[in-house]
UniProtKB/TrEMBL annotation:
Component of a multi-subunit COQ enzyme complex, composed of at least COQ3, COQ4, COQ5, COQ6, COQ7 and COQ9. Interacts with PYURF; the interaction is direct, stabilizes COQ5 protein and associates PYURF with COQ enzyme complex. It is a peripheral membrane protein. Keywords: Acetylation, Membrane, Methyltransferase, Mitochondrion, Mitochondrion inner membrane, S-adenosyl-L-methionine, Transferase, Ubiquinone biosynthesis. This is 2-methoxy-6-polyprenyl-1,4-benzoquinol methylase, mitochondrial. Belongs to the class I-like SAM-binding methyltransferase superfamily. MenG/UbiE family. It catalyses: 2-methoxy-6-(all-trans-decaprenyl)benzene-1,4-diol + S-adenosyl-L-methionine = 5-methoxy-2-methyl-3-(all-trans-decaprenyl)benzene-1,4-diol + S-adenosyl-L-homocysteine + H(+). GO terms for cellular component: extrinsic component of mitochondrial inner membrane. Coiled coil: none annotated. One of its GO terms (molecular function) is 2-methoxy-6-polyprenyl-1,4-benzoquinol methyltransferase activity.
Length: 320
């Protein structure tokens, strides 16, 4: 079977040499590459509103999530007044996993998407079991109890792999998994979205929630998503997007720049990481631009849904 090492040679060589032209037109934010010289295009990018070298960015992003890991979940509930939970639930209902789904959750951090997936497939499997038992009306209650006990896989064959580049985020995720009683069907892998440590054609669904904005080469991460998905597999991305209503946009800016970093400082003792959060949101492409990037990576039937006036969007695409 082909492995992740089997990426075309030109791709590997151009990537390691950082030749101009390898990158797509991204980044295109206010301080993005389109304002830079041809030579600098291959080496400079943005970290929030700051211009940094591509080599520097990964380390800076790593430091942000290492720093916020312990307060990450509480901060999300506070900053979003719990709304991020609704967005994540919507991602799961859009996915509507079938029994036996193999999910890869990239930039999975503290496991929010993975735990939702496990709860979803568990409930789905239980429901299916109940329906089957109801259909077998002639069974005695002892036989029904026996059938329940002999059930070996309560997830019906579904599995999720959480992959994240940050050890601290994964550590918190594993602690949460233990506390919530998740063990079966869950694996944690340290890895980079730009160079996934998985074989080709391995997963039915690839998710990335609030992760892709932090990746240095978004085009590379999208190509990797395409590579590891099975033919017919689905890409789903939940990410901050563009608010189009001018009034809401004004309020949103006020809240983002005046409140979020203050909350970051008060709750997590970390102004800078939350300043990076709001700045990185402004650097991310619009719904339509991101849709094009997903198509460029080879996905088909690409669609998106804007949620909460476009504060976030869910993009979907298929490897056909
Ligand atoms: C370091 O990197 C990160 C760290 C992290 O912890 C998380 C992430 C990734 C993010 C997530 C996993 C998602 C969860 C996190 C967030 C949603 C935080 C980011 C928040 C924003 C960019 C702002 C938008 C927030 C929301 C839509 C949540 C709801 C909040 C409100 C409705 C605001 C209510 C607050 C107040 C009333 C307090 C007083 C506010 C002011 C004085 C400022 C003025 C503000 C307003 C008048 C209202 C604000 C209005 C809006 C936000 C727009 C309203 C929208 C609609 C009506 C649709 C990570 O990468
Ligand atoms: C805002 S958190 C999102 C966590 C989780 N998906 C959620 O929705 O709560 C962003 C995550 O992206 C991870 N990340 C950043 N760059 C990455 C990369 N190149 N490869 C894999 N993960 C990365 C960070 O370590 C962090 O855990």
């Amino acid at each position: 079977m082909a492995t992740h090492r089997s990426r075309p040679l030109w791709s590997r060589v151009m990537r390691s040499c950082r030749l101009p032209g390898f990158r797509s037109s991204w980044p295109r934010g206010p301080l993005g590459a389109r304002h830079l010289s041809q030579e600098k295009q291959a080496t400079e990018t943005h970290f929030g509103f700051e211009t940094v070298s591509e080599e520097e960015k990964g380390g800076k992003v790593y430091h942000v999530f290492e720093s916020v890991a312990k307060k990450y979940d509480v901060m999300n509930d506070m900053m979003s007044l719990g709304i991020h939970r609704v967005w994540k639930d919507l991602l799961l209902s859009k996915m509507h996993p079938f029994p036996g789904t193999q999910l890869l959750d990239v930039a999975g951090g503290t496991g929010d998407i993975a735990f939702r997936f496990l709860n979803y497939v568990h409930a789905q499997h239980k429901g299916k079991q109940k329906r089957q038992l109801r259909a077998q009306q002639n069974l005695s209650w002892e036989e029904i109890a026996k059938k329940y006990q002999s059930e070996e896989d309560p997830l019906g064959g579904s599995r999720v792999v959480v992959c994240d580049i940050n050890k601290e985020m994964l550590k918190i995720g594993k602690q949460k998994a233990r506390a919530q009683g998740h063990k079966a069907g869950l694996a944690w892998v340290l890895g980079d979205a730009e160079e996934l440590p998985f074989d080709d054609d391995k997963f039915d669904v690839y998710t990335i929630a609030f992760g892709i904005r932090n990746v240095t080469h978004i085009d590379q991460a999208l190509q990797e998503a395409h590579r590891v998905l099975k033919p017919g597999g689905r890409f789903l991305c939940l990410e901050f997007s563009q608010v189009n209503n001018p009034l809401i946009s004004r309020l949103y800016d006020l809240y983002s720049f005046q409140v979020i970093p203050v909350l970051g400082e008060v709750v997590a003792g970390d102004w800078k990481s939350y300043q990076y959060l709001v700045e990185s949101i402004r650097q991310f492409p619009s719904q339509e631009e991101f849709k094009e990037m997903i198509e460029d990576a080879g996905f088909e039937k690409v669609t998106y849904e804007s949620l909460t006036s476009g504060i976030v969007a869910i993009h979907s695409g298929f490897k056909l």
